[in-house]
Design brief:
456 residues, globular, alpha/beta, 9% strand, 6-stranded mixed β-sheet, Serine Threonine Protein Phosphatase 5, Tetratricopeptide repeat, 59% helix, 6 strands, 3 domains, Rossmann fold
Length: 456
């Protein structure tokens, strides 16, 4: 066995490799697999599929109207209701239209977090800032049991309105209206639209569903959404989207759970995902939930099969960002970075997309390129805990000890398991004494002995 001095020298000489290893353990654990060839074939097939539909590299300050493939931004529809609190409803309808267009028309659509930044007078900036070829905007007025939805499609380069319409009906008609708008947008952009199964639900239940879209992915937020979605699925047992989102949100929350509770939570996720997929076999959220609760070791074939189903499903949604994430855990660092960067460009202001691209850059040794993304996340989404620990590692790799101390002072005010697991590495990187290096190694060995893997 190597002595402590040898270990210390190896650490000092292999920082790039360690940056990848450290990034790999974030969220679900270090996984080194002997079945890389099978996943390589899987990813090659995926890359071939993507190459025919990949978005062009966009230059800031220009828009993509001249490209052959439309790139659409769906802005948050204005809330014209008398109650400002109804904004959740207008935002939710806009988000559902994004999902329908992405899946039913296979359109490239800017992610909701980025496009929803542009409200009020800022909507005029959206096309140029988002580098999109077309913009869908509109307004919603809700009163009692009725709703009026107005929408219009704008071509960015010519400022020409290609389509507009107004819909008046009851709240029960919302699903039909969403499909009609999506179909008209697809037709205007010379695309076909295929609807997918959605059961109409009680408006009060649908309100709860619209409130359950994750934003920060903080534990308390996720617990609240799980509670909402449990109510939704109890009252609307045939609502596939709710079952799928419940499986996805609960599976993500499972990463924060004590190890002793994870098996029981995983069983719930499996049940909820199965119910969603029985109603809608291409439900992306349900498949992501299944992928998240698989053990980090020993289930590579099963995970590969789920990943392939996600890749083949129309419309990617949140699932697209986890393709690159999973490839990284299997050691396909460059492929993971390429895929994650492409996904990030479609939603640069989305916290989870930003976090995954920063992890991919860390794994590829691009520490300096990852730091600004983490810094922005820590400032912009303070409830999102894992960027804090990742940024701490990044500062340590750069030996920016003043920045490390500032972040340690901030992190000490928060009860974060991720932060506690980072400290042994930071201490060893700062001072390669036998005591610190042995402490880091001992922490790792104890975690592997306890869990069979690494999960920080």
């Amino acid at each position: 066995m190597a002595n402590i001095g040898d270990i210390g020298r190896w650490i000092a000489e292999n920082e790039s490799l360690l940056s990848g290893l450290v990034a790999l353990v974030v969220l679900v654990g270090l996984v080194l697999s002997p079945v890389g060839n099978g996943l390589r074939r899987l990813y090659t097939r995926y890359k071939q599929d993507q190459s025919s539909t990949a978005s062009p590299e966009l230059v800031p300050g220009t828009n993509s109207a001249a490209t052959t493939e439309p790139l659409l931004a769906v802005l948050a529809f204005d809330n014209l209701s008398s109650d400002p609190e109804m904004e959740f409803f207008s935002d939710g309808i806009s988000e559902e239209i994004i999902r329908r267009l992405s899946r039913g028309a296979a359109l490239k659509v800017i992610g909701r977090t980025s496009s929803f930044q542009f409200r009020g007078e800022r909507k005029a900036e959206a096309a140029n800032a988002l580098n999109c070829s077309h913009v869908l905007d509109g307004s919603i007025r809700r009163a009692a049991g009725s709703v009026r939805i107005s929408a219009h499609l704008l071509e960015a380069s010519s400022q020409t309105t290609l389509w507009s319409d107004r819909y008046d009906g009851s709240l029960e008609d919302v699903f039909t209206v969403q499909d009609e708008i999506s179909e008209n947008i697809a037709r205007s952009l010379n695309q076909t639209f295929s609807s997918f199964p959605t059961r109409a639900v009680d408006p009060e239940v649908y309100d709860l569903y619209l409130r359950s879209s994750p934003k920060s992915f903080a534990p308390d937020e996720l617990r609240g959404h799980v509670s909402l979605l449990e109510t939704v699925t109890q009252r609307a047992p045939n609502f596939a989207e709710a079952w799928g989102r419940l499986a996805y949100v609960r599976a993500f929350l499972n990463f924060y759970q004590p190890y002793a509770e994870r098996a029981a939570t995983a069983a719930l996720v499996e049940r909820e995902a199965a119910l969603a997929l029985a109603l809608d076999a291409q439900n992306i959220d349900a498949m992501i939930g299944q992928l998240f609760v698989l053990p980090p070791l020993g289930k590579f074939v099963e995970a590969g099969a789920i990943l392939e189903r996600i890749q083949r499903a129309p419309g990617s949604g949140d699932g697209s960002r986890y393709i690159g994430w999973y490839l990284r855990t299997m050691g396909h660092i460059r492929d993971s970075l390429d895929d994650t960067e492409r996904t990030y460009r479609l939603d640069t202001l989305d916290p989870m997309s930003a976090n995954t691209v920063a992890l991919a850059r860390m794994a590829a040794g691009q520490i300096a390129e990852a730091i600004p993304v983490y810094e922005d996340l820590v400032e912009r989404v303070p409830d999102m805990s894992f960027p804090v620990s990742s940024l701490l590692r990044a500062y340590a790799f750069q030996e920016d000890w003043a920045a490390v101390d500032r972040l340690l002072a901030l992190a000490a005010q928060r009860n974060m398991r991720e932060f506690q697991d980072t400290l042994p590495f930071v201490k060893a990187k700062r001072d390669l004494s036998p005591e610190h290096v042995d402490g880091w190694r001992r922490t790792l060995e104890e975690r592997v002995a306890e869990t069979g893997g690494v999960d920080v």
